[in-house]
Amino acid sequence: MPRHRIFSGIQPTGEPHLGNYLGAIRQWVEQQEAPDRADALYAIVDYHALTIEIEPEQLAAWTLDMTASLLACGLDPQKVTLFRQSDVPEHAELGWIFSCVAALGDLQRMTQFKDKAEQNKDNINVGLFTYPVLQAADILLYKATQVPVGEDQVQHLELSREVARRFNRRFGETFPEPQPLLSKVARLRGLDGSAKMSKSKGNTVALGEAPETIRAKLKVAVTDPARLRRNDPGHPEVCNIFTLHGCFTGPRDPERLAAIERDCRSAALGCVDCKKELADRVVEQLTPIREAQAAWRARPDDLRDLLEVGRKKAAAIAEATMEEVRARIGVRGLAKRR
Ligand code: AMP
Ligand code: TRP
Questions:
Q1: Residues 224-263 pLDDT 10s
Q2: What are the structural domains, with CATH classification, of the chain?
Q3: How far is the CA of 277 from the centre of ligand 2 (A)?
Q4: Helix runs in the chain, H state only
Q5: Which of the ligands is closest to the CA of residue 197?
């Protein structure tokens, strides 16, 4: 087994946005280029998406579309395993076993459940509550040690570690304790400048957004709330636009980033111009992704073939883990069936 194994997942609930990209996907792509790269698996978690009301055709279509988006972001299926969660039924099997291991009290503390239950009062299904248990199964099925995610998933990973410990204590040492890998922007705020960027909040820039839309959205995005007049000095450390400059301007032109920071503080640079400049950078850097996304969307059969290649690689690991788990817990495994 490799020293480290990476696993992460993303729900097929629409186009990924800048929060998904900067918090998670960009790390996935960067790590695949590392010389000492770990073995990595990325799942499009369609069973998790079932916790929200979603039409069957829509779920299938979004799963394929997420595949197109991830490939467009640069994920390379030659270097990583990219697959659809529901193609490997062992996720659901281990999810049930873990639900007999996880503590109710631990699940009741999950803030994402509380938020989602509050937002969807007419559909508080049990899956929404046991969601982190299935997530623990996703990760531990591959005995993954590192999980690149945004900050909102840190609590779920604490639960995954607790599930691993509880299982190991009861049935013998089987699973490692997975750790989160957080990016520099582990919690990107939305265009409103306050809430987390999130599809459900309508404050996103999607990766495939048209240039005019990106420009229009950034034009009205919230900056430093204390900067009321053009000549007021700005505070880049609290400004979401400056955070985005850090991602889109900084890596290419650190001197320009330093100048933006200085000129914002002295009020030499106003928010309108600062946002216009950011929009140029974002449009420039998202254009290749948008174009690649369109190209992949035109090849649905190739997307299905790639998912099938991923399924085979994932299934081989998942089946081995489940044989071990079945033997440990005392249910009959396939190998022993008579
Ligand atoms: P989801 O769309 O909820 O499946 O999220 C996919 C990944 O994006 C997870 O790793 C999240 O933690 C991450 N993510 C989602 N929103 C944000 C955000 N606003 N900032 C940083 N990471 C995020
Ligand atoms: N819960 C994650 C989210 O909402 C998605 C997810 C499901 C996941 N299973 C996972 C992330 C396993 C990391 C590892 O973003």
A1: 999 999 999 999 999 999 999 999 999 999 999 999 999 9
A2: 5-188+300-337 (3.40.50.620), 211-295 (1.10.240.10)
A3: 33
A4: 18-20, 26-32, 46-49, 56-72, 90-99, 104-108, 111-119, 126-140, 154-171, 211-219, 240-248, 254-265, 271-297, 300-329
A5: 1
